[in-house]
Amino acid sequence: MATKKVPAKKPAAKKPAPKVTKLAATGEKPKAAKPKGSKKKLQLLRGMRDILPQEQMYWDYVRGALDQVSRAYGYSRIDVPVVEELQLFKRTIGEGTDVVDKEMYEFETKGEDQVALRPEFTAGVARAFIEHGMMNQPQPVKLWTDGALFRYDRPQAGRYRQFHQGNWEIIGSPQAALDAELIAMGYNFLSDVGLPVTVLINSLGTPDTRKQYVNALKDYLKPHRKQLDETSQERFNKNPLRILDSKDERTQEILEGAPQIVDFLDDESREHFMSVLEYLDESGIPYRLESRLVRGLDYYSHTAFEFVLTPPEVVAGEATEDAAADTVDAETGEAKVAESSVAGMALGGGGRYNYLVEQLGGPAGTPAVGMAIGLERVILAIRELKVEIAPEPTADVFLAQIGETARKRALKLFEELRKAGIAVMSNISKNRLSDQLSLASKASAKYTLILGQKEMIDNTIIIRDMAAGSQETIDQEKLVATLQKALKK
RNA sequence: GUGGCUAUAGCUCAGUUGGUUAGAGCAUCGGUUUGUGGUACCGGGGGUCGUGGGUUCAAGUCCCAUUAGCCACCCCA
Length: 489
Hints:
Blueprint (H helix, E strand, L loop, with lengths): L1 H13 L1 H13 L27 H17 L3 E2 L5 E3 H8 L4 H5 L3 E3 L5 E4 L4 H10 L9 E10 L11 E10 L4 H17 L4 E7 L3 H15 L8 H9 L10 H7 L11 H17 L3 E3 L11 E9 L2 H5 L4 H8 L2 H9 L6 E7 L3 H4 L8 E7 H10 L12 E5 L2 H16 L4 E3 L6 H10 L4 E5 L1 H6 L1 E6 L4 E6 L3 H9 L2
Parallel strand pairs: 1-5, 7-8, 12-13, 12-14
Antiparallel strand pairs: 2-4, 3-4, 5-6, 6-11, 7-9, 9-10, 10-11, 14-15, 15-16
This protein binds one RNA strand through helix 1, helix 2, helix 5, strand 6 and strand 10.
């Protein structure tokens, strides 16, 4: 039966395809090549992408590490909706920021609600904290999540309109130790996953110190204003702090002598910041003070930090303590980062936001710290640096069957094996043994079970050791026990 | 949102100054082997050369527009 079907299919499958192309080709000349506009190619929206099966191993790897580290540090999982009220984001992230002003996916629903696709997690998590009365739980509340975020930005490598982050929030405690613990966790997560990173850190103080600093900065820049680059001049009134980030050389030169925000911190903020740094020293986390680090979202206060893929000069040059060397470990790692285009890429960051919860209508003075790590970028770096990741768990055994009766038995046997905890796979749509062996080999199964007419009569089954190429015949009743023993490791 | 580069098979790419039926490797399917894989050999399928228009006797090749990707700006993850 099976052999008859195969030859029948072949000619049928072959002919139609050429016909179609021929028609299309001849149709071109008469001029009517585009009668159907429906031929328009459907393609990915800009900035969107498919994560194909071949790439899933990286996502499994990263998500696994995410889950592990989050549990270890005592975080509870929370999932918040992709869509929220537009106002939630406008109020927290702040109007005037690029994220809100030009990068939000916002729209009106059929019920005429103004909503937006989440461009980040913090606002939603803070909203959930308040809405579900989590202030009545033991403080602080540690929450983590991961998922898709949306920003209508212009795509580039490692930058998409739909992207994913791992996200952590610690709400309800002002302790500097928590800032440090959070940073340590992010650092350790990235190290675990195989990435050499540097922590950049700064303190933004309170809204008040920020105000003072902004004034001081403007006073300093005013005489040089005409020499600043164009965008910096625009920012002068709108968002002067961001001038610090300018990549323009001339602007950077001018900034050399600019006042630093650290000098404007009030006693409490300074103490907090010093304390965070002490904790970091204690935990051996290498960091670099970065007085120009200003995060793009309005709600940050006090500690602000960022994880950057370690650029070569930092690793090779002024040794940032032993811990840095530990994470880089092999010299090959350094070399790879050096020659890689991803060196210096920002993988994540975060900071304190002591005023956000209150601003959203939560209890006054509810402090919090948060952090987010970009998953696409982590995976990009992992792939770029060729970090070796554990191969996907493959099937232990492949069940091959030959002939109709064996196939029926195989269906049942498959289930018995699965219930016995054996990772088994098969493909009952295949008839030829060679096809099935080939599949088994591709799936790197340790054993292939061969069940054919002969075995059905004897009530036996063949166990083939794929690596050794040897095989033996055993009774079907003994199969499960034999396999369990053989796979025990 | 601004500027630059790029676009040929599922993937990586080749394609001479515009000139016959657009090629390779890998992958895929089939055969050598109707009950023995990962090797080898043979063969097949798969391209409206991103899309639309223009120049030309003739366009994958030149021009314009458009879409997408990449790079820089910007922003950040």
